[in-house]
Amino acid sequence: MASAVIFTDCVKSISIFRGELYAISIATGLVRHSKDSKFIIFLDSLSILQALLGFRLELDLVQKVIKDYTQLVNSGKTTALCWIPSM
Prior knowledge:
Layout: E1 3-7, E2 10-14, H1 16-33, E3 38-43, H2 46-53, H3 60-74, E4 78-83
Parallel strand pairs: 3-4
Antiparallel strand pairs: 1-2
Helix pairs in contact: 1-3
């Protein structure tokens, strides 16, 4: 599944992969603003986890998530990414 917006002659779409990266980006933002210090971000996309762990830096949103995650670690937040296989 992906999402798309079509308005007159303008079409904007987002892939599932990009949408899930965006969701992780939102989660890291919530972690950053929380007073707590230990977190687990659950994801069901193995390809996202592989892209992050493989530092696929050609993807701008992967770069952003890695940067945000690094800032969390450097600020003392313990944040684990946990893959849960989808059914």
